[in-house]
Amino acid sequence: MKPIRRVRRGTLLLAAAIAGALGAGRPAGGTGGDRDETIQIGGVQRVYHVHLPPTAPAEGGLPLVIVFHGGGGTAKGAERQYGFNQLADARGFVVVYPAGLDRRWNDGRGTTGQPWLNTVLVDDVSFVSATIDHLRNALPIDARRVYAAGMSNGGILSHRLGCELSGKIAAIAPVAGTIAAPEAPRCAPETPVSVVEFHGTEDRFVPYGGGDILKQPERGTVLSVADTMALWTRLDGCSTTPRLADLPPSHPEDGTRIRRVTYGPCGRTSEVTLYTVIGGGHTWPGTAWIPLLGPVSRQINATEIIWEFFERHPKERRGR
What we know:
Elements: H1 14-21, E1 33-41, E2 44-52, E3 62-68, H2 75-82, H3 84-91, E4 94-98, H4 124-138, E5 141-151, H5 153-164, E6 171-175, E7 194-200, E8 211-212, E9 221-222, H6 225-235, E10 243-246, E11 257-263, E12 272-278, H7 302-312
Parallel strand pairs: 3-4, 3-5, 5-6, 6-7, 7-12
Antiparallel strand pairs: 1-2, 2-4, 8-9, 10-11, 11-12
């Protein structure tokens, strides 16, 4: 990996920062910066894509949002589909899209269900940890505002990162991905991690009620949405009495409804919130419809809600 020098804090535009620190030019027609970076993990070259906004870093540095594609997906696909870049440019945060080996993540299930893939031997937790360190060394990243979001396999990985990298990650946002069954009993975050989960009741891939992925035992098992929320409310020390709200429909014609369940107050200002997409499939609310994955809800924009949730939940300052 080519070394990247640290960007001094100050009033530098991030377009200049990306060019100087990561060696990338501006994208055509844009003012921010984009770059594919590589890093060696266990002798394996890993890749992630960086998008920086065109704004100067705020006092304390820039938030970092790490977005994980689903199984079989790509970093570029996640960048195109979920809309984080536009939001980052408007709100001033860095987005990183890591690429899974064989387009998969070692999310804690202990199996891929596909014998030609060696993903279960890949140390994706170390990859993410090293990526965070690499970016914090190169750019003015606010260490208290590092977040992870992901779809499906990437969402399941987000739970694992919350369990195993709580010292670096303040909040997670899994979409259509509950926690892997083998990960749940060993989940022991050092500090509370805020969680916002989105899940469709008609998800045929990662069942709302838990169990085998795609009803195939060889693909591994996940907890139900209810059990996943119960785990995080216990780990974060939340009130066990939830606040329920059925959101008014903004697109009644799409056949889905949204129920929000919020648990709190929780320890150290953390929060656990669930958006159940009633009638929704294995999909990211507010994005384009993808054949075979089931209904996409237009009632909410998950990306916008995720950022608003992240913005409210930085890691608490040490010593408080």
